[in-house]
Each structure stands twice: as C-alpha cells, then as structure tokens.
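Support request, please re-run this one:
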Amino acid sequence: MNLDRKSGILLHPTSLPGPDGIGDLGPEAYRWIDFMAESGTQLWQILPLGPTGYGDSPYQCFSAFAGNHYLVNPLMLLEEGLLKISDLKERPDFPADEVDFGPVIIWKTTLLDKAFHSFNAKAEHKLRPEFEGFVKEKQSWIEDYALFMAIKETQDLRSWTEWPRELKTRDAEAIAEIRKQLGASIEKHKFNQFLFFKQWTKLRDYAHSKGIQIIGDMPFVISMDSADVWANPELFLLDEELKPTFVAGVPPDYFSVTGQLWGNPLYNWQVHQEGNFAWWVARLHSILELVDMVRLDHFRGFAAAWHVPFGNETAIQGEWIHGPAMELFTEFKRNFPDLPIIAEDLGVITPDVENLRDSFALPGMKVLQFAFSGDPEDDFLPHHYPAHCVAYTGTHDNNTARGWYDDAADFEQEFCRDYLNFSEPTQAACAMIRATWQSAANFSLAPMQDFLGYGTEARFNIPGKMDGNWKWRMRANDLSADLARSIRKLNLLYSRLSAHEKQAYTNWLAAHAGEGVKPH
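Re-run finished. Output below.
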C-alpha cells in the first residue's frame, strides 16, 4: 500500500456527541466529517464496527461481518417514516460525556423494534425492495447471524455454549424448527443490519465527498460467543464438546505482568488452508466494503499466536504456535492487489513478524508514548521513523498523551521534556502531536482526546480491565472552529494537506507576494 503524506484522528463513532446516549451515524457524525475537512485532516480511524457483546468491547463482537445496530441514528429513521416524533419523547436523560451502555441498549432496542414494526406494518413499504436486495447481497453471513441473535434472545442472552445441546450443535431438525418459530425475530435482526449498513454507507460516501478516507480495524481473533464460531466450529480449535482447547492472549508485557488472557478461540489453520482461506478473504472483503484501509490488530498473531491452554486463569503459561501466514497473505494479495492494510506490529516483534510485514510492503506502527525510556536509539523516537509507517501519539489501548505524561516516571518525563522542548505538563499533548506530525512517517494520527488535551479521565480502554472501558464521549462544543484552525495549521506546516489544498496555498502565496499578510 502506497502512503501519501496525510494526517488523521482516531475517534470511534460511539464517542461522538448526541442526545441518545451513544455516538451514532446521524447529524453529529456529519458534523464530525465537516470538522475534519475544515482542519485539513484526511484520515478518520475507527475501531471495529461489529455488534458488541461481552464488556461492550468492539473487539468482542457477536459477528465478524455484521454491524453495530446501536449506532443507528433515530432521527434518520424518523426521516424514513419508520419512527414518529412521539417515539422520541421518552428519551432518557443520558450523560453527555460517557456511554452508559445498559440504558443505551434498552433505548436503542426499543426504537429499533418500533422501526421494524412500522416497516412490517406495510407490505409494500418503500424500503422493502432495497431491504430484500440487501439480504440477498449479504446472504453468506446474515442468515446465520440473524438466527444466532434470535435464539440468543430466547436464551436470556447466554453464550451459545450454554444453549440446549440440539441448538448448540446445530442439529438440523432443531434448527429447521426454530427458524419457523423465530421467523419474525430473525427478520428483525436482518432489518437492523439493513439500517446500519444503509446509514454507514451514506456517511462513508459523505466522508469521501470531503476527501476523507476511513481506516477500519480487523481484530486477529473473534469472540467465542459469536455467530461465526457457532456456525463454523470446524474453523477453530474446539474439542468434541465445542469447548476451546486453547484460547488467545499475550504473555506478560508492557500492559500486564500476568499477560493478557483474552479467552478467544484460536484457528484451525489446516482447515482454513484447505479451504483456500475463504473465510478470511470474505472477512477482509466485508470490512473493505465499509472502509478504505484496515488496521490488522495483533498482526504478530498471524505469524505466531500465543496459545494458552483452556482453563488457565492467566496468560503466563502458553506457547507461540505458527500459522500459514505467508500463504494467507499471498491469498489476500491475490484478492486485494493494493493490500490496503496497516500492520499493528507493536509489542515483542520477532524476525518472522518483520519478514511477514516487509514481504508484503505493509506499513507498521510507531507509538510516541513508547519512546521515552531514555535511549536515543529507541525506534519509537520520531527521528528514527521511516516514511512507510503510521505514527501515533497513542492508540485506543494507551492512556491519553496528557494522562501518560502525568503518570510517567520522573526520568521519562524529563526525557520527554528535553526531547520535545516543552516545560509545562499542559504542553505535553501538543508537543507530542507536533513531533508526530513533524516526523517522516507518511501517516500521522492522534486520538481526539489528545487534540483536546484531556487527561486520564478520557482514556478509552485499559487492556486487561474487564469493565468500565469504551465509555468516553466528547461534548458537542469540543469541535470548535479554533481547534479546526490549529489542526489545519499543523497540517500546513508539516505538508499533510491534500495536493489540491497545497496548490491553493502555493497559488495564494504567489498572488500576495510581498504584501506581508498571512492566509487564513
């Protein structure tokens, strides 16, 4: 993938402002796109867009293919005639600066159920041809997903591993019978997906019209409690009782002294390889229908994944087991010649991981927060960045830049101040953004929290922490014209504006040479 020099902002849609308790795909998302365009920023990076499950994490989704229906905007359903104004009058009083997932899920589910009832009430509804075409297009995954969600509702939302045996094992007769019983519920879940994809596609097209590309995210592992594992158990390392034999994680690292035990099932690579990696190709294809490029989370897992025996309470004990990475990425390359992929190559990276990344010319990642150990030869210091990489002040798994600085050891703070040439803690985030933008890295990004100068209170995720993550939301007045101008100035200074805007600036300078005035 070729990288032109650009900048971006990391902000998951759930963090957008709005009255319905969670950021969504409605007016505030379009206002966000406008803000990015005004700031001269060309990349919007998000987290996985799937329907969240355990812990409300976008990395633990009920499907690797479906979308998060809680992102559907009610006002746009009103415009489609699927809701009435009266349906919105009982909206709870949600907090403005965080997502309270429990009440949000109840509220959004109530509205989506009303929208489906309205749709069903008219046999010739104007959206029906479009809906039927959507279901046909997504046939490869939507039937299993909708059935999975419909059954889950009858089982008090328990994991499919706890369902009655005939449903857990997908007994043909039992599945045929429950499809008949749950027909309306299955159709509802298909309709929810239709609404998500319809709204997302419209928003993505608007972003493109403003010159903004979207960077998506594909986790290496998927949730055990997902339609994918339930419908395709042969693709995973499961025993005869459909329990994992090994689960995913990482050994002790920067984030945790006991490692990270994710609990996700791992892959039966032999079966994937025998099937020409069809599931992986379909998965990447589905994501690239929604975004322009994709960050592969835990990229090193493709080369070798940490296999922890099922039942262990920590990730300390495990084994690195290699997979057919070169063969998989060769198949990716055959299907997606440009390979619009960013390799999340953080953590302990071995030569085989570097070889996989470099063999397919994938840009890796550099995170400035990791740089200040005191060693001037540290690869995470900006003067070492290659052009073909993606540089960040921090990621969704890190503290905010200000929060990192406040919590850093004294020697790290001192090295950071000396290297970035600032004196006050309030200047830390701006200094880290500037250094990332100045670097040779063709893509430079920062979380929105860093542009706002927020501290630890705005951290999005703490790896290994089981609850309380993914909640942060920005407020509507955070998107100020002054902030857009300051970001635009950074993009101008460090050659991260679009070619069109660079040319416009050059033309302006030529037209006003000698006048002693500055462009706005």
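DSSP finds 20 helices and twelve strands in the chain. The first strand starts at residue 6 and ends at 10.
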